[in-house]
Amino acid sequence: MQYEMNFGWTSPIGEVLLGATKNDGGTRRVSYRIGGGSTLPFLEDMSTTPAPLIAFEVCDNPAFWSPIIRDYCGDLVTSVSEWAKKADTDYRADLIRLHLTSTKQRNFSDIASLGPVVESVLSATSLPLIIEGSNEPKIDSEVYQKCGEAGQGERLLLGTAEAGKYRSIAAAALAYNHSIIAQSPIDINLAKQLNILLKEIGVQRDHIVIDPYTGALGYGFEYSFSAMERIRFSALKGDTDLAMPMICSAADTLSIKEVREAGPGQQDELAIQWELFTCLAAAAAGAEILCVRHPGTLAPLRKALAGMKQKAHTAGVH
Amino acid sequence: MTDVESAKKHGEEALKTRIQAIQKPFSYEETAYHLPISYALTGVAVHDRAAVEEVLKKTADNPIVASECLLAEQTAVKGKEPAPYTGFISDTVIRKLGYSLVDGSILGLALIVGTPQGEGSAAAICRELQEKYMLTFLAGNVVPSLSGAGVKLGLDYRLIPLGSSPFYGIHFTDIVARVAMMFGGVTPGDMHRLLAYAAERAKAIVIVFPGLTDEEIALVDGMRVLGFPILSLGDYEGGTWVPATPDDVVRQGMDLKGIKVHVTAIPIPMSCSPAFEGKSIRKEEMYVEFGGGRSPAFELLRMREPSEIEDGKITVIGPEIDAMKEGSANPLGIIIEVAGKAMKKDYEPVLERRIHNFVNYGEGSWHVAQRDLIWVRISKEAVAKGVKIEHIGKLLASKFRMDFPQLLDAVAVTLITDPTKVAEAKKEAERVYDERDARIKGMRDSDVNTYYSCTLCQTFAPNHVCVITPERLALCGAISWLDGKIAYEMSPSGANQPIEKGPVINELTGEFEGVNRFVKKASHGEIERCSLYSVMEYPMTCCGCFEAIALMLPEVNGIMVVNREYKGMTPSGMTFSTLAGTIGGGAQTPGFAGISKNYVLSDRFLQGEGGIERLVWMPAALKEELKERLVKKLADRGLSGFLDKVADETTAETIEALMEFLERAGHPALTMKPLV
Asked: Which domains can be identified in chain A, with CATH numbers?
């Protein structure tokens, strides 16, 4: 059966560069150019962009992490650099997303300690890095300054800017030439507004990745999907303020009832399945980066994405 | 007294002479920007005498460039000054400073040069600058004077001693030049961009104490090119330096550059954020309401002289919320008075429309419509938390200050709940509305090539796009073409954008290529075509704020109009609220259009369907409201007596009665081209 594949798109999604190799003044072994798509993902007989990148999420204080992952990974979680290294060499992630959860401790003030954390992860892996700073207005300014400085030259992706807190992240991106994640609460207009605010402060469009906010499958993901779909349609129809790549994290899936309350022996499998299918749905909606926390999710996710890239008949679907 | 003009002349000559003495090559360390000012202005990397000559030629012997070259050479030869002086500051530190500027933790930059007279005056100025989040650079005798007064210096204290003589003030400028290149996207050599960046984005002021030499005066005066105000604290005359007193110099400088200390938290007992904007308050959740046809209510924003209002003052005239019965409807007048250097009277209606957003930002307050049609509710939950009428005033005053820092210096809010006083003030408000409506009278759609959009309501109706033309104001009745134009001037990335109307597709229905293109984009691809003057074909989308609805009645081959205030049944078999529920939400519904009441008076009204002759029914009160102007308009168009042929609820409540009435009256619509 033949479908009409002309949707009247007028312009492609902008590209964002992640990671800097030696040639570009950094120390990463690889850099990625994400975005650039000119139609929806996974269409047959259409020139589409590569499959989404998979980022593995780690943190520097596991007390603020899912117990499922803590149990599965064991002692590994106590050393963020070892953890990141394993994500690179064993789990085969494309990117590492470092959450500075230590900043979540009550009255956290040891900003100076963050520099060495970032540096240790940068030396433990040569993959491009995503860094999530603090979420506390009182320390945001110093934390992002420190992150930006520690990763100077590496072309990091810094997160997460929101309508109420974007100045510090924007400043770090501008000062040290990093890109930033701009998150809005499942709302196309707020996504656009934030991008405009960032533009006004001086952040270039090719330094912004949209986080539409990803609900867990069965727990609001349909809203995320709809928002992503509309963001992508608008972008392809020429709205340059929305024409950026998107990032989705399946983090919420680890705290939903089915996974949280699953019996021992089943919990890991359920966590993996939930992350996997949330990510696949996000990929179908157009995400360029998918973030997972369970080490077991990466292999099946990669396999499934490869299957989606194949022609329908070769993949066994008619 | 030193005469600035003549000192400047002597100084510039002296600088030129001294340049001749430069022999050996030189450079600054720890920078990728060479001599930053020269590099930013000309793109030339200065390291020797030949390059010095080149940049001076390119900048017409600019005293800042000359000073930069001289100081760089002097630093290379003699080395840096000892601590506490910083001398030239490295790129790494500038990056951090720039970070704080973008971040907002520093609001602006100040340079203080010269020799303070007597202890304490410089210290007081510096303390004020610190309190106002300014980063201050110091050069010359002001440094020992501050140390003498026990003032701590250094980056941590936001007081940076650049050097022992005012000449080191040049580093202030090289910092701004580097911030422009690092953060502002200014490419070296793009002089125009640099000057624009320095003038508009770099919030910098210069404070001058007495005792500057001619050369130093030439240098400081040269900074005016970058848009820095030079504030003089005595001993200088002539030139364009701004005389100031130590008590007032910081405020004056910050005012001149429009640097404002932001309000961050609103002191009211409910949360306030755009996140609550789309949340409505249902009847069961409501504690009290105002307006909405249940009680008289209005809102008005007016410009005043700064001396006439006290910033942040909230006045409640009449009973507070605790004296109101739960579930009751009460009268309300919201009067906002604003003052500001950049404020214009033309901006009043545009700012007034923001009351809608701001009241909705409150977790327990809700607002719809505009002018004397407003409808406001306060929730039970909010009242239980202690929210009062006064807090709505605080919310409004703070939000206006926060969102329009460049425009408003003072905002005062008066809320009237006393029935007699509301009635009085409402009369005055109506006079103001009429005055505003009169301003745009006489302008034609064909007179302009640009219309304006309004997507303010996309928070409620995600694909809705209003197209505002001189002869068709927004369907809410609150934003005219002029208001759209002004709103765009004030906020170029806001909800009102210019629309190039482009080539005509259909003159009669008002369809234009440019408008279609814009609407398609702004409706996220949902709406392909939009005709401005037609109800039947591709009418404009409707949000939910329309003052009235125009809809076709196929049985009588005509179009009726019903306004929001009318509660009764209409010949269509539906009430206003039923109709509103059917057509709102950003949809395009052929046969139905949301319109402003005044649009009925426009020559473009129903143009696509044959003009006002199609109008068969409207509520008596609306007829009465428009009568005076409508009768005149109709007479001008040779349609005297037409208004009597238009039915209302007193003559026809049903479609059958309407048919009879129209036939009896000999209404022209009956014999016009069939609508469907």
From this structure: 49-309 (3.20.20.20)
